[in-house]
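Q: Predict the bound structure with uridine-5'-diphosphate-glucose.
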Amino acid sequence: MWYCRHLQGTNRVSNTAPAIINESERNGEEGNRSEEWGMRPRVVLVPFPAQGHVSPMLDLARVLHARGFEVTVAAPDFIHRRLAGRADDGIRFASVSSGLMADDGAAPPDFAAIEQAMESHMPAHLERLLSPPDAEAIACVVVDLVASWAIPVARRCGLPVAGFWTAMLATYRVISAIPELIRRGFISEFGSPLSHQPPCQHDGQEQAAQELTLEGQAKLSASDLPWLVGNPASQRSRFAFWLRVIERAKSVRWLLVNSFPEEGGRRGDHHPPLPSSQPQEHDAPRTLPVGPLEAHGGDEKTRGNSRCNLSMWDEDQSCLEWLEKHPPNSVVYASFGSWVAPISPEKIAEFALGLEAAAQPFLWVLKDEKPWRAGLPRGFLDRVAGYGKVVAWAPQEEVLRSPAIGCYLTHCGWNSTLEAIRHEKRLLCYPIAGDQFVNAVYIVKVWGIGIKLDGCNRHAIENGIGRIMTGDEGAKAQASVLQLKKRVMGEEGSSAAVASLQCFIDTIKKSM
Ligand SMILES: O=c1ccn([C@@H]2O[C@H](COP(=O)(O)OP(=O)(O)O[C@H]3O[C@H](CO)[C@@H](O)[C@H](O)[C@H]3O)[C@@H](O)[C@H]2O)c(=O)[nH]1
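A: Predicted complex:
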């Protein structure tokens, strides 16, 4: 375990920001290591505390460390405890007090609690971590834009800030175009779609939508907007959250995006300009697509190995053995990621009946918490025991790597989407919230690597599984996913991402 050196330097180890101390450092061996690491410029990374955000931030940490930086990941205490015990690769971890310490094994705090902690409790604690005398050695603070609270903190400490966007650039562009969407009367000042407006076209064809043009021929309907999560009150609060993010993002110098260049497949569009709603007098952040980070992580030796990862739940390894008993392309993998509100019991019942009726082997990740499993029909688990397996949490990368998996019924989280592309799996889409609707539009309409469920009832699910597993659409999607992987994770895609990373690294090193 590593200990965060600058905490010791400022004698602030104890009550505010507990540090983890490496035993060898306690025993006086710190001198040599400090000297060695003193040569390296230091970067502090501030993730948002959810699995789908921390994992790509750790990939970035690994990449920067492999390229000569001393890297500290400053995470809220309840995540720090999980991280510090698991990760490797010489990355250091600092704990930022959240005021939310949950018991070990308890479910992570919900979004509202995290938002409250980020806005009111954590800034003072991070500021101590970033303050002199150690701050001089920090070349840059990289902040997940969903944790935008850390941007003003780093700025107050006089440090350069890079934003990190863990999802598609397309989604960031939709969010950063909010002022423009309001101005054009597409949404109200509280983010509600104004029904008299036509669909928002992102194809560059319509004069009115030109400044929102995204790569590809992607058309977004009003209901796909990423802040429309939950009931009207929660939608308003998400909208206010994003307004704060875009305001703070104006002051970052770089925007690192965990996505590949040319999301829409058009060449020569590596750094599309941000929408004109960004004030022109302001130096817009330099947008650098550096993803998928896992593919470029580490060095030659470590690339492709399992990541220094964070898993919020215990992975049920028994599914790997179970998969080995199945022929190639025969199993439907179903999972809805880590950070969506529970699906209602009624919908879970429909998923269960749809999977049962499809009569295809399936592996279903369904959290072992209320109310996730409450909708499972009586006797379901016994009836499907011969061909279906339900687990609380899977080692997803390894599952997707298995040749037995024929398709992935997914919520379209961005990490899951990238993992499916990496392991060449076609997708059956059931987006639930946030950026997942934008991702689904690209998966289905732009890249053609999957299809979308026609509804959330047993027949639509049975039918969707049939179409993707055995129909022509499935065969086409399979061919497309191979092509997409080649384009974005092959040599050309990787070298573009590595060039973007190098550009970022060179600039921060020069500015020290
Ligand atoms: O049984 C499981 C299920 C998931 N995972 C992993 O959990 C991560 C899930 O990430 P993602 O697919 O991005 O979903 P969320 O965790 O729900 O991610 C949030 O963050 C993403 C990145 O910003 C957004 O795209 C999503 O919409 C948002 O819900 C992936 O790495 C999976 O491999 C497991 O290890 N085991």
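A: Residues 332 and 362 are 5 Å apart (CA to CA).
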